[in-house]
Design brief:
The chain is α/β, with parallel strands linked by helices. It contains four helices and seven strands. The strands form two sheets. It has a five-stranded mixed beta sheet with strand order 3-5-4-6-7, sandwiched between helices. A two-stranded antiparallel ribbon has the order 1-2. It starts with a strand and ends with a helix. The relative contact order is 0.17.
């Protein structure tokens, strides 16, 4: 028997236990009954980030961005498209560095957009700059 994965709900932030074989079965949250995977990046604040980073067994692909950043706005559609392709094996999240400067400082974000792969409680890969969707998916699959 395989060990269940802990998957944090993107809606209510409840932690769900899910057999790995059921990831692709469109599972719903045990608490709020909404889908665990929406095919879209999550906008997280610091508290929600801690919950997802600390309790989920899925790798998090984090996009550090800011609303005034032209390259960030250019990357946003590719990041959204990548969420459709990478879920349910990854959770894609966006952190607005203007609203969450402490998280940006904790991750030593020096330029944006910066992508960080967070896996098993630590950073496993990082990349700055603009990527198209297919390049982003390839990078995430290699890094995750």
């Amino acid at each position: 028997m395989t060990t269940p994965l802990h998957v944090v709900c993107p809606h209510c932030d409840s932690v769900n236990r899910l057999p790995p074989a059921r990831l692709a079965d469109h599972p719903a949250c045990g608490a709020c009954k909404r889908p665990l995977f929406a095919g879209a990046p999550l906008e997280l604040d610091a508290a929600r980030f801690e919950r997802h980073a600390g309790r989920s067994d899925l790798p998090l692909l984090i996009d550090f961005w800011a609303p005034w950043c032209g390259p960030c706005r250019q990357t946003a559609p590719a990041f959204s498209q990548a969420a459709v392709e990478l879920e349910p094996h990854f959770r894609l999240v966006k952190i607005n560095t203007e609203e969450e400067p402490e998280l940006a400082a904790r991750f030593a974000i020096r330029s944006i957009p910066t992508l960080v792969m967070w896996k098993a409680g630590r950073e496993s890969a990082r990349r700055s700059g603009v990527l198209d969707a297919s390049s982003l998916v390839r990078w995430a699959q290699a890094a995750g």
